[in-house]
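Box 3.1 A note on notation
Throughout this textbook, protein chains are presented in two layers. The first layer is the amino acid sequence; the second is a token string describing backbone geometry. Keep the layers aligned when reading.
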Amino acid sequence: MQFKVKYRIYYEDTDAGGVVYHSNYLNFAERARTEMLRECGVSQNKLIVDNGLLFVVQKLDIHYIQPLVLDDLIEIATRVKSARSASFAIEQNIFRNSEKSPSAILNCTIVCVIKKNEGFKPYKIPDNIINCIYKK
């Protein structure tokens, strides 16, 4: 299943040349992952407060293909590629202005962890979440 969300590129997202600063791609991708969970009825804040569970990035690879610039309308398509008991791998494609080819591709491994007094430990992703984000 693929989840999609759109954002506009604002001045604050860009450098002095009007090009999106490289680290902002990560912010856009994070927002899209949050919206994917929201679409599944998951509030990350509630998950932390009620269960001590968090989703953290374990691994991230980004391929910048074409720059995003001021006023672009971007769409981020997020797809879960695989899932394990405590983690899932996703691909996120960022498209600009309805173009067919992505401007950037992110591959990311997300791990569910539980907060304990001694730190964080991997934890099984709740079934309702994995069933929503990953459909075979």
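The chain has three helices and six strands. The chain has a mean pLDDT of 94.
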